[in-house]
């Protein structure tokens, strides 16, 4: 990892004073902001990340998100850069140290002290969870304690940015002892993952150790997949059962069994504190911290203002110049050195060249009761004093001017001085004096940003813009941009985020010009798509878009626009063989108007059923076109075979047919003059233009067999055959036939008389 030199200036603004700590991902330096005259902390990322465009892009977005988080329990992010030779964050200067260092000095905490620490940690974490962010690396090294006892959470988003970088490969990003099971398995990381890590931190505060042991980071990380975090009371006496339950819920192996987020964890912690009547407690800053040791790098105090408020007692009072505590970076669990990701605390210049592992710094030997019993009122520790008290430069005296030159010389010198001052003031005003620096307002709410711009001497003008990274109704920046020097009193636009743009709704008249203007207003580009048919949109109008209206897209994204070609042409459907009603319905459903019906003979289609259409099936027409339905007018030959000639002729007439040629034959029929055959055949369809049906009529009949039959039955059979009889008239119906002539089953001419004798 490349180390920056003391005195080196980042982006012409942040002067490096001293390094504080170094980790696997970054080095933290104490710096002076030369523009605003305050001490800040700079976290400079390792070159293996800074050279990766994927990391730079993710880092830029995450840094902007971090800058928008504002809470006393979070370390403020003031500035960031991911475009130059170095990728870095400029953060609030923390003048105390880390929770890791405090644990190393004092050992395990009693419940009231642990509650005070976790209250601040969970408060800050809940702010991030509410904003949709996940920390991913909760551990004592990322929990800082200011000299005023304020506990703050640091390093949001950096792990996520590192995880997106190819430089990390397929390794697990995080710190082994505090990883959640889903981080180890690289599945479904959300707020519940931070809850698990916070539960491990609470366990460590109460016991002075982490819950899992092993030969290396990988062993410790994978242990949580098969083992539960033990109750703190199993390792140290005096831990109430309610704290055991808190830790158990927070560190459940399944995310669904934990507190849903930091806010829910915080509510449970407050309930426990109320139940146990735990007193408020002011968390002390560590005394043997990297922040304190790093002050040895500063040989002389800066001549700029520091971030600390001047102490009572006038300008001669000392000003704190202690550097910030710095959290350790994340560990990659891979095949490399397992210690590669641990933070290394840098010693002072006169302290040798060795390094201390923050995570492994042994606690100082001290009696068990290094934590005071909770008072009825919060403790107030004495404020830290600057090891480099302020100073005033020795005044430079000039010998007085004698009066020997007389009053005229004095007047002349006075005039020259006044003119010189006037010229200097005028030159200053027309040169740089009338210019001011546009303030940085990223992430502020509109009211605060407007007030900030006004205080800087400019005329604020609110303007809404679309932005993918800044949430709705938060400030994206200014125009001119922050840090730009422009004449005071000039208008400065405060750019308020509308969030990511959505594809606008289509105009009611589908006018392309209006829609193009709507796209441009939302920063979106028009891309010509293929024209499409539309039954609802006139030709030339906007038919549809891809993505569709209402879909969220990125700023400057493209929208493919498809113009209408009007209604799509429709093919005339095939309706042959359908009934007339079915065919009409099919045509109308296809979008056509049935303008009329024609008839045509078709030997394959029954009368009244559809034969075809005009235009023919398969023809492409505009929707709504007229189509003529053609139906069959065929006549169907009835089955008259076996009927008498007379009856057959009547049936044919009823069917709209006429008798054609009648051929008589010696064939024997069942009745007199029975029809033996027809042509066309029964069931055939006949053209109405030629409706004749030819008949074949039998001229012989078969004498029925009457012997043994009743007289009434014999009379009927003879009548059906067209024969006359003797011997049956006057006999009773029940008489039986005993003889007949001609005999039964003989072929004779119709009308022949059959002689019958009966008895009874």
UniProtKB/TrEMBL annotation:
InterPro entries: Kinase-like_dom_sf, PASTA_dom, Prot_kinase_dom, Ser/Thr_kinase_AS. The chain crosses the membrane at residues 409-430. NCBIfam families: PknB_PASTA_kin (NF033483). SUPFAM superfamilies: Protein kinase-like (PK-like). GO terms for molecular function: ATP binding; protein serine/threonine kinase activity. Its EC number is 2.7.11.1. Residues 310-339, 367-396, 729-760 are annotated as: Disordered. Residues 14-270 form the Protein kinase domain. It comes from Corynebacterium pygosceleis. Keywords: ATP-binding, Kinase, Membrane, Nucleotide-binding, Serine/threonine-protein kinase, Transferase, Transmembrane, Transmembrane helix. This is non-specific serine/threonine protein kinase. Coiled coil: none annotated. Residues 432-498, 499-565, 566-633, 697-760 form the PASTA domain. PROSITE patterns: PASTA (PS51178), PROTEIN_KINASE_DOM (PS50011), PROTEIN_KINASE_ST (PS00108). The gene is pknB. Residues 377-396 have a biased composition (Basic and acidic residues). It catalyses: L-threonyl-[protein] + ATP = O-phospho-L-threonyl-[protein] + ADP + H(+); L-seryl-[protein] + ATP = O-phospho-L-seryl-[protein] + ADP + H(+). It is an enzyme of class 2 (transferase).
